[in-house]
Structures are given as C-alpha cells and as structure tokens.
Hints:
The complex is a heterodimer of chains A (about 325) and B (about 425). With about 325 residues, chain A is mainly α. Chain A has helices at about 20-40, 45-65, 75-85, 95-110, 125-135, 135-140, 160-165, 175-180, 185-195, 205-215, 225-240, 245-250, 255-260, 275-295, 300-310, 310-320. In chain A, helix 2 (about 45-65) runs parallel beside helix 4, helix 3 runs parallel beside helix 5 (about 125-135) and helix 14 (about 275-295) packs antiparallel against helix 15 (about 300-310). Chain B is α/β, with parallel strands linked by helices and about 425 residues long. Among the domains of chain B are: about 115-270, NADH-ubiquinone oxidoreductase 51kDa subunit (Rossmann fold, 3-Layer(aba) Sandwich), CATH 3.40.50.11540; about 360-425, no CATH class. Chain B is built from 13 helices and 17 strands. In chain B, helix 1 packs across helix 4. Chain B is globular, with a radius of gyration of 21 Å. The interface of A and B includes residues 6, 222, 268 and 276 of A. Bound molecules: iron/sulfur cluster (2 copies). One iron/sulfur cluster binds near residues 367, 373, 396, 401 and 413 of chain B.
Amino acid sequence: MDKLFIVSSPPHIHTRLNLKNAVWIVILCLIPSLIAGVVFFGFYALIIIFISIAVSVFSETIFEYLSKRKTTIQDGTAVLTGLLLGLSLPPNVPLWIPLIGACFSIIISKQIFGGTGFNLLNPALTGRAFLMLSFPQIMSVNFKYQAPETLSEIDAVTSATPLTLLKSPFYYKITEETLRKMSSFDFLKLLLFGHSGGSIGEACKILIIAGGIILLIFKVIDYRIIIGYILSFCLMSLMLPGRINPLFQLFTGGVLLAIFFMATDWVTSPVTKNGRWIFGIGCGFFTALFRLISHYPEGVTPAILLMNLFVPFFDKIAVIIRR
Amino acid sequence: MIFTWPIGLRLKKQKNLLELPIEVMPPVSFVFIHFQQHRGKPAIPLVKKGDAVKIGSKIGETGGEISSPVHSSVSGRVIDIKPHPHPFLREGLCCVIESDYSDTWEQRFIDSDYHSLSKEELLERIEKAGVVGLGGGGYPTAKKLLAGMKDRVNLLIINGCESEPNLAADYRVMIEYTASVVEGARILQKILNVPKMIFVLTRNYKMAEALLKKEGADVKILPDSYPVGSERVLIRKITKITLPADKLPIDVGIIVQNVSTCYAVFQAVKYNKPLIERVITISGDGINKPKNILVKIGTPLSAIIQYCEGLKDDLKKIIFGGLMTGIAQFSLDTPVIKTTSGIVFQSAVCEDEINDCVYCGKCIDVCPMGILPQMIYTFIKNNEFKNAIDYGLDDCIECGCCSYVCPSSIPLVHYFKYARLRNMHG
Ligand code: SF4
Ligand code: SF4
C-alpha cells in the first residue's frame, strides 16, 4: 500500500464556525435590516450602502496589494465593515460621505494596524466617528423639523431621531405631557416596529433584535457583552438626570445596532469572560453618559470606541481577578 | 469565578456506533507487540528471535518503578524483535510473533474462589496480568492501586463516559459484560478498601445505566458533553474539587478507573488472564464497515482494515484514539496497543487555512480547565515559556476544545504540546 496519509496534531475535527462563516452569518443577519432601511428610506439608501461596501472591499484590495500582504477579501470582513458603516449613516447623505468613511475605516483603522485581527478600534465605528467629527452638519441630519410638540410628527421620514429632539434647543420646551407620551407603550411600539431612526440600519428595531438573537443562538457573539451593555445602559438612563425611560433610550439612536453588531465585534472586544462583562458594562455606562453631556445626540460611537481602547486593560483585570 | 464556569462542547457523534455489538476478530497470522504500551518505562524483552511462545506468555518484564509487563496475544514463534511503527511514539521496540493459529495457553485456571484472596494477592494478579488504564492514559493499574492503598481513598470513580464522538467500546463492554465489569469494580473497591464506589455515565448511555443498576451498582449520570470523560473534568463535575496541575486525584482521596479496565481486572483475577485483548471501536467515513471489535493486542492496522471490509478510496487520515485527542498514523503496519480505544478512518478532513488570531475569545470560553489558551499561545509563539506556565500551561489537559472552536483554525493544542516538550528538555 503506497498511499500517503495526512498526519496532523489533534483534534481531527473542527467547528464549522470559522472566521469566514461567522462573518457571513453576521452579514446575513444584517440583510433584513438593510431591506427594511431601503423600504423605508428609498432606493437612495441602497446606493449609499452599496458605495460603502464597494469602497471598503476596493480599498482593502488596493492596500493589501500595495503593501504586498496576503489578500483577505474572501473572509468577508471588509464587506461587513462597509455594510455596518453604510447602515449607520443617515439616509440622505451625499454619496461622497460613504466613500470617505469607508476608506477611512479600512485603511486608517484596520489596515494600518495590520489587517484583520490587529485593529484596536472597530473599523465601522471609527469611520463613523471620523465622519461625525469632520462633517457634523451632514451627519446629524437636517433640522428641518421645527416643532416637536406632537408625537405623530416624530416618525416623519426627514425627521431627526427622537434623540435629537431631547437634545435640541426645543428640548426644554417639550411639555411634561409630551415626555410622558414619549415613554408610553404606543410610542415604544412605534419605535420598535416603525422607523424611528436617523440612520438606515435603524429603520426597524425588531429586525435588528431578531438578527442579534440569531447570532446569539449560533454562538457567534457573546451574551456577556450584550447583557452587560443593556443592563448598565438601562440603569444609567434611570439614574442620570432626566430619568428618561430606559426602553425609550434603548430603542432610539443606534444603540441596538451597536449592542448586537458593533460592541460584540470579535477583534475589538476582550477575550476573557470577565473582561467582557466589564467591557459591556463600561459601554452601557458611557453611552448613557455621553448622550447626556456631549454635543452629539448619539453617545454610542464614542462610548464603544473609548471602551475598545481599554480592552487590553480589561483582559489584564480579568486575568488578575482569576488568581 | 462564577462567570468562568465552563460549559463544554457538544460534538456530533457518529450514528449507530452504540448499536454495533462486539464482534470477536478472528486470529491473524502476525502480531506486533510493543514493549512500550503504558505510561512509564518500557518493558524489558524476555524472549529472543526463534523462541516459541503461547497465548499469555510473558514476553516483556516490568522495566522500572512505573512500568508493566507485556504478554503474547497468540501462540507461535517470535520471528523478530525490532523497531516498528508505534501509535504515538512513531517507532518503538516491538516483538513480532508469527501465529500458529492454535489455542494453546500458558498456564490458565479459573479461580472462582477469588473472594477469599487477600488484597496483596489480588494486587499481584493485576500486576502480573499487565493491566493498565484502558481509557487512554495507560497508567499501570497496579501502581495506581498501590498508591491508593498507602493513602486514604474515600471515593472510587468508575469512568464510563466516553465523550469522544467516535468511541463506543466502553459502552458495549458495559452492556455485554455488565456482570464482569461490576465484579471487577468490586475487586478494586476491595483492594482499596473504599466505602464508596460510583459508576459515572453520560446521559445517552441509558441502557448501560439500567443494566448496571440491576447489578446493584451506584450510577451517576452526567450531561453528554465533551470532555466530561477526562479524569480531572470528571472529578470536578462530581466532587466540585478542582485539582491543581501538580496534584493527582489520589491526593484528594479519589481514584478513577475506566470500565474496560475493570473488565480486564476481573479477567486477570478470576481467569488469571493477562491483558492480551481489548474492545475497540472502528469508525469513520473512510472504512466500509464500522464495528466494535474484540481484538488481540498487537494486531496490525492492515488486518483490521481487512476484517472491516476495506477502505474507501478517498481515505485521508487514520487516527488512533478519539477524534479530539487521537494521534494520526502514517503507516498501515501500526499495531493496536493496550491503550488504543478506537481507530477512526477519516475521509472528510478539515482543511481550513490557518489565519491570525482574531481575539474572539472562543478558546477561553470553551476551555474546561478555565485557562487562557489564546494568551498562552501568544507567549509560546514569542518563546516566552515561563509566562506560558504562569498563565496555566500546566493545567492544560490537551483536550482539544480550544483548537476545535478556534475560528482561525490555529492548532493551539499543537503549540501546547510543543511548549511542554521544550520545557521538558530544557
Ligand atoms: S487543550 Fe488545554 S487549553 Fe485547550 S481547551 Fe483543552 S485544557 Fe484548555
Ligand atoms: S479561538 Fe483562536 S482566534 Fe479566537 S481568541 Fe482563541 S486563538 Fe484567537
């Protein structure tokens, strides 16, 4: 018998959940949100996302070619970054916005640091933060909307997110009754099933939650970050001045998308279990805090980016706790 | 620590293995009996080329403090003593015996009155029969028992959990030889003089549970997850004691024995029969007829393949042991040794590309010992062996869970084995 056998070290079986499959599952879980966004905001939203993805993939290819690295397009991470960035953009930005954002995400935040696995910050969020800082007017959508007195107007397509209302100069004019209504059940239902978002991906919350749950079931993402995030975020919302209904907080802005798809990013979250609890809790804490004190209506992006920077520290803490 | 409690893997089992009855494999013309079939020093050859041997003749003498004798599994003539492919040493000194197909035994008797033997006499029989831990560890049973007689043992665990997805041999042994297994376990209990003995099974071994209970044994059921059959994990699941790397189960008054070992002990004590055959599971998608077979120690792989009606053409890998911890083989001449619990013939081999670590933390989530594979791996990669040990390398039981889940297909266990060798040899 002259047949040769493969000799390798154990184990001899391997999970099917390799990097490529995991990334594609995440992308699939985002597709419903994408469709909802396109349905609500029109074909233009699809173009924005398409540009974002295409530029991500393109810039990754070019960069890897120029720097003579092994190409990593097939693992799908560039597509995912582009998709997430596109989903977190407002639906009516000019088309050069996703272009710049995606370039920044891929090249500055990911490839410069060494490619997949080596980036410190979540690429999609970095791209978004860059856009928010550079083009605040465009990114925080238009304030076409003038009188936030009645709730029926909140879901106008061109409106800012309900969060902007809380933050806008009109905030202080909002009557007690409006606030009460804002936290009423009907309103939550509206937020959950209707489109309340200022960005494409936040069109339908229930789809985001469904996608997140599928990811949890497939064990692609870790429940510790999610539970830690949600709990601390709700708690903070209740405790901070304003005492906004935590559910209202949770269903507005990009929090859900960020909780399920961005904070749980493998590369930029801690590896240890206890580290993840700390990370999730920290994210929730700072999201609520930044919403209250920062200039931007959205607190998610800076909060997660800040926590990303502390990831090695959290892991260190977790290692020390263990002993 | 609450949050670091491990959950374990649920692996897909090969179907129907549990239903295949044990078949006795017919004698083969040549057997290859290794002198190193156990933990510790190899046995010292007692025979030379041309010697006639019978079934059960001792051909290798205990070679040191921790060692075990080996016996011929056929009657015939020694035709050579030479290095030969070994299941996990690559090559080892081996005695080649040509069988004359006769059924002549070296002294054999049935001692139904073994109950009246003293502990020392029982121990001596086990020692002489060359019984070793058949679960895969291969630690000489008599030595383990001797240590147990010196220290105080308060719990004897009989391990019937085969958490590897391709093994069913222990299950078949429990079902078909229930009485002998329980009797063997009672002998161990008597030697150790322990008040409490429990059988531990996984949840899917319903039938074995019923049969063992009928024999009056104490049975405990664990969830069917990998690696529950591993000694340290088993002990923690049952007693909630976490053993540090430098402690043996005996240090906390526990002894774990495998069910097949109990069967061998019973055979040794009652029939004075040395350990010359064992039940193994032949499985995988690369063999035509998966089987549970009772096979003579020393039977080469090629004969087993023939008995199982040949290989499939697309066979890629042959593994001795379990899919998660077994060793891939390079030669069809490799014989079965005492610690072989199964053989897998694999055609569908995972050939994922190895990428850089993506810091997903899955390896840390899944590690049953609660150590940090990802960090240890990074240290080993940078040649920082001391740090690797600080982070728990010694606690690793090489169960393979971390490599299994790693989305970048990093062979973590391979790194750990490498680091251990490096540490051992400076
Ligand atoms: S092989 Fe070692 S490090 Fe990996 S999961 Fe098993 S015990 Fe943990
Ligand atoms: S499972 Fe693999 S990729 Fe994930 S942290 Fe561990 S070593 Fe890195």
